[in-house]
Amino acid sequence: MDAVTSQQVKTLQANSAIERLNYGAQSPELLKKLVDLSTAIRKGSIAASILSLVEIRASQLNGCSFCLDMHVKQAKLHGERELRLHHIAAWHESPLFEPRERAALAWTEALTRLPEGGVPDELYERVRSQFTEKELSDLTFAVMAINAWNRAGVAFRSVPGSADKLYGLDRAGLS
Description:
This protein is mainly alpha-helical. It has helices spanning 6-14, 23-26, 28-42, 48-62, 65-77, 82-87, 99-113, 121-128, 133-155, 164-167.
């Protein structure tokens, strides 16, 4: 087999087949802080099922294939129904989500997209009616954290599935 040319490497990189940079190896102290934040969020007041919806929806909006892959597999391992996973992108029209889940998804979209003029009062009131102040604060930190992970994943083209064995995600049966 011929050696890989620099043009082939550029093509592979452009198609996200090769990670640009291992940001965890380059900034281990910062990675640990982000992992600590994510761990604290998991121990917080928001149910794991809602956190999964938030992580998946933000990753869809941000185009982070690594995080989308990871969080879909995690959700499946934690018992999320496959049809609901397929409906997350169209949650506005889907009858499969409860009001509290809809509020979390709407909050995720607003904070991920940050509309000009900020988060509308109507949305804040709708979300606030579903969550306590503590829960809303924890939910906001969850959205902040997944957006941070997504930005690193997109910037450095983290390869989907590349950490499956490390995180036990190969058990999801979605390779």
